[in-house]
Amino acid sequence: MFGRLTGIVAGLVMASGLAAQDHATEPDLLTLASGAVLVSASVDPATALALTDGDPASNWDTSTKKFPPPYSFVFELIAPAELTAVGLHGAGPRPGGVQGGSAGFVRVAGSNEGPDQGYQELTRFKAAPEGATLADIAPGMPIRWLRFTVEGPQTPEAAWVYFSEVIAHGTLTPPTDPDRFTGVFQSGRKDFIELHQDGDLLSGCYLENSGLSTGTLSGAVQSGVALLSWTSDQGIVGTAFLTRDSTGALTGAKYRHRSRKVWGGPVAPEGTITPCSPESVAAETPEVPVDPIVKALEDLGEVRIYGIHFEYDSDVPKPSALPALRRLLAALQSAPALNVDIEGHTDADGDDGYNQNLSDRRAAAVVTWLVENGIDAARLGAVGKGESAPVASNTTADGKALNRRVEVRRR
């Protein structure tokens, strides 16, 4: 059913990297940026989180011979996928002269029944010591869970085993549930995240440091994942990238500047209330509520807007950008004395000059849309920032997604 023999032959032949070249332009479905999550790892699951960050410079390793192979890892895709290829990224020689430890033979099995059942082997291949190795997969039933089993290192005498990334190519339809992220989630013993989804737009709040610190959240859903901006009660700002797995848990990363940490947790116990729960808001809402974008501009002088999506390599907004554009329009209409600059930001992929030009054009496109919908052009400026002002690491796939954004800055 899964083309096992075809996959095995393809994997062994394509260790030269030809398969990686063939799939070079396809998105990797096994990254947090694509909504994938690590379900389990037989050794050091904390370090194994690096296998889905999209950064070949980070890696998982055993660090010792105490844990002999094989090593098993289970990953969950954001939705069932028709896979065309799977593989991994070898880590090459490690610092200190360690040789031959990068993953050697690898078995990959898939399931659409659950993380612990229903697996059928997709392929077995010999991974290259460096770079991406991919094995083509014959068409078959959709796959939601992937189990990678690393049988050992490149050379038996290696001190330990390591590799950088897992990879999966194919097609899937991201979830479009309008309430996908609505809920309260427990991120620590007394720490919580609450989100409210309205179409593709998100708002909410969080408690951390055992509930002693609070903050607000705003953002948008893009391809089934949440891109968020957070602001602490001390005025510190940052970004976050979150997805939900099949158990309902929230999983992702929180950035402050380029520092990245794991963030999320399971659904909170029923009845859990946070500062942005309807019960709390009803008790504290002023008679005339202030638009959250306007409040951020008045208090901090700037606000990040996620959800203004553009066509690829273009300054034309996608139809999915309309909710975020309308939210910005409503904010400016509610504060007619507010003058702002619209800033376009990109990730670091591509040439600096190209990114600068693209961000110039995208900022101007947002200004044009606002003017066409009634905002006085004298209130607006368009500023392209290119890749010069990242809010997250450009080495991870989710960080790059957070860096592709529009910001509004008070003049």
Report how far the terminal alpha carbons are from each other. Answer: 61 Å
Strand order, main sheet: write it out. Answer: 10-11-12-13-14-15-16-17
Radius of gyration: 23 Å
Total domains, how many?
A: 3
Q: What level of helicity do the residues show? A: 10-25%
Would you list the SSEs in sequence order as H and E? HHEHEEEEEEEEEEEEEEEEHHEHEHEHE
CATH superfamily of the largest domain: Galactose-binding domain-like
- Report the structural category: alpha+beta
By CATH, the topology of the largest domain is: Jelly Rolls
The CATH architecture of the largest domain is: Sandwich
Tell me the overall shape.
Answer: globular
By DSSP (H or I, 4+ residues per run), the number of helices equals 8
Count of distinct strands: 21
Arithmetic mean of pLDDT: 90
CATH class of the largest domain: Mainly Beta
Unreliable stretches covering 5 or more consecutive residues = 1-18
